[in-house]
Amino acid sequence: MIDSNVPLVDLHRHLDGNILPPTILKLAHKNNLPLAKHTLHEIEKLSQIQDKTSDLLKFLEKLDVGVSVLATEQDCFEVAYENIRDAKESGLDYVELRFSPYYMALAHQLDLGAVVEAIAAGVESGSQAFGVKANLIGILSRTFGQKTCMQELDALLLSKDKIQALDLAGDELGYPAPQFKEHFIKARDAGWQITVHAGEADGPKSIWNAIELLGATRIGHGVAAAQDDKLMDYMAKHAIAIESCPTSNYQTGTVADLSSHPMKTFFERNLLVTLNTDDPAVSNIKLSDEYDVAYHQLGFTREQLSIIQSNGVLAAFLTKQEKDDLWAKYTQDT
Ligand code: ADE
Ligand code: ZN
To answer: Which of 253, 330, 258, 326 has its CA nearest to residue 294?
Structure first.
């Protein structure tokens, strides 16, 4: 269902949720870790969702397997590099990769600043090797609390110019947005753009807070916006994009089934809806699967999906010139 006349982008993709099972096994062997005793099939079962989980926190436990094998900064570099290879294989023209340095450093107590540098270097090197344009979004893992998030932010700011935006991810219900106001003031002062996971595990108030308190111009998931007409009107009026990830929303139990996903409602109410993967390796999906899901299960037409695909370019954290450059390849060919 992907329109071959429109640039393909993924704006919501966790680099640390996209560590492929063969890479997990390879790094487990290299680093002499207990996971190395497992077969590839067992690693797949451990690190990927089987149908669905009970809630977001159970879903996030699956990501723990991938980051547990990151024992050196070079491992982080490799995972970043492989993410660009994966983007190329998925046909992406542009990808925004997000990552939490604290989360990636945790299992083997790596230096936070060094992790950020390794990720930026891996993405840069991969972009050159595979010819896929990429930008980085730093994540504050709210699950670890305000203080740790400030350390995480400071580590990201050391590589300020290699990062485009800041996100807040993890336990939305337990660690609401008001706790992170100061962090996001600092991020905006640094010139970064803001996207926030909101309305995934909590209600519409969480989305209002992401916009009004943290300055989000894009919302990750935003499923709960469907419960609040005023919020949907506000988001449409101010072009606050929604980064939809339907399979992830099913797997986390955010929506009971795909046919009740509100993405179509958002589209019909003129919200700037985009379609993305979230954690492709953990969910065991490709971006093309999400376009298929949107066509077969969410009820979009091909024409509507083409608009959604181009919304990705519109909502990207890119300059007007960079967006024109993405389109150039397609307009020349036609
Ligand atoms: N980290 C990785 N995937 C996430 C999600 N869907 N929600 C919150 N934090 C995440
Ligand atoms: Zn996410």
So the answer is: 258
Question: Looking at the annotation, which residues are catalytic?
Answer: 200
CATH code, 79: 3.20.20.140
| Ligand 1 mutation pick, 60, 142, 175, max ligand atoms within 8 A of CB | 60
From 56, 141, 166, give the residue whose CB has the most ligand 1 atoms within 8 Å, as the site to mutate. Answer: 56
Domain membership flag for residue 330: no
Shortest-distance ligand to the CA of residue 206: 1
Residue 229: CB partners within 8 Å, gap ≥ 6? none
> Does the residue 154 lie in any domain?
yes
Q: Give the C-alpha separation, 290 to 280, whole Å.
A: 10
Separation between Cα atoms, residue 18 and residue 81, nearest integer Å = 11
Q: Say if 140 falls within a structural domain.
A: yes
Q: Report, in this order, helix, strand and coil percent for the chain, each rounded to 5.
A: 55, 15, 30
Number of domains in the chain: 1
> What are the pLDDT digits (tens) for 300-316?
999 999 999 999 999 99
Query: Token pair for residue 238?
Result: 């101010």
Quote the domain boundaries for residue 60: 9-325
Is the predicted pLDDT of residue 332 greater than 90, yes or no? no
Nearest-atom number in ligand 1 for the CA of 252 is 6
Q: Is residue 1 assigned to a domain?
A: no
* Cα–Cα distance for residue pair 75/47, rounded to 1 Å: 18
pLDDT in tens, 169-199: 999 999 999 999 999 999 999 999 999 999 9
Confidence of residue 125 (pLDDT cuts 50, 70, 90): very high
pTM (global) more than 0.85:
yes
Cβ–Cβ under 8 Å, residues 138 and 113: no
